[in-house]
Write a structure and sequence with these properties.
The complex is a heterodimer of chains A (112) and B (111).
Chain A (H helix, E strand, L loop, with lengths): L3 E4 L2 E4 L5 E7 L5 E8 L3 E10 L2 E4 L7 E2 L9 E3 L8 E8 L7 E2 L3 E5 L1
Parallel strand pairs in A: 2-11
Antiparallel strand pairs in A: 1-3, 3-8, 4-5, 4-9, 5-6, 7-8, 9-10, 9-11
Chain B lengths: L3 E4 L2 E5 L4 E7 L6 E7 L6 E7 L4 E4 L2 E6 L4 E6 L8 E7 L7 E2 L3 E6 L1
Parallel strand pairs in B: 2-11
Antiparallel strand pairs in B: 1-3, 3-8, 4-5, 4-9, 6-7, 7-8, 9-10, 9-11
Classes of the chains: A mainly beta (112), B mainly beta (111).
Chain lengths: 112, 111
């Protein structure tokens, strides 16, 4: 089954403790991206990657890092999480840029 | 950058009625306009999209219209059913930047 898998689905952490949210797709897609969803603000893009070793900032990249060492994986790294990064995060992938088809199930992160 | 406005923020209809959600965008270079349905606890699901070279696209009970001159596009759902209840997002993409979403419309279809 074609899918985008995020882990964990839920995470509560403390301010400053580094964390990684993993994202994996099994469709051999080149384009992957991360979004955060906040009430009243919709979805905002954090980072995207057009291929292995190619990443670029989205609209809200501050406080986040990503890497794309393999085509299937695109982890989101929070080096020093803060409470304003409490949000619902989605990973997405598509065969090419301009096709925004597949989203993961989401990761609800709470930073206390 | 691109700015997408979506209205209304909430929409309540009776089963069988039609529902219309409208979006406007600011970047005249935008050429791809997807719509997503998000059910509680799930990720957004692409339900229909339209590119700038067409004015209308239909898929069963769902249709999208695009007016490039006015920079607005709309989602039309006919014969609504309770299972259509969800949050709907429009988005716009200019080909060189990020996909920009509207803030969402909560659609409630009452039996």
């Amino acid at each position: 089954e074609a899918q985008v898998t995020q882990n964990p689905r839920y995470l509560i952490t403390v301010t400053g403790k580094k964390l990684t949210v993993t994202c994996s797709q099994n469709m051999n897609h080149e384009y992957m991206s991360w979004y955060r969803q906040d009430p009243g603000l919709g979805l905002r893009q954090i980072y995207y990657s057009m291929n292995v070793e190619v990443t670029d900032k989205g609209d809200v990249p501050e406080g986040y890092k990503v890497s794309r060492k393999e085509k299937r994986n695109f982890p989101l790294i929070l080096e020093s999480p803060s409470p304003n990064q409490t949000s619902l995060y989605f990973c997405a992938s598509s065969l090419y840029i301009g096709d925004f088809s597949f989203f993961g199930q989401g990761t609800r992160l709470t930073v206390v | 950058g691109e700015n997408v406005e979506q209205h209304p923020s909430t929409l309540s209809v009776q089963e069988g009625d039609s529902a219309v959600i409208k979006c406007t965008y600011s970047d005249s270079a935008s050429n791809y306009f997807p719509w997503y349905k998000q059910e509680l606890g799930k990720g957004p699901q692409l339900i229909i999209d339209i590119r700038s070279n067409v004015g209308e696209k239909k898929d069963q009970r769902i249709a999208v219209t695009l007016n490039k001159t006015a920079k607005h596009f709309s989602l039309h759902i006919t014969e609504t059913q309770p299972e259509d209840s969800a949050v709907y997002f429009c988005a716009a993409w200019a080909g060189y930047s990020t996909l920009t979403f509207g803030k969402g419309t909560m659609l409630l279809v009452s039996p």
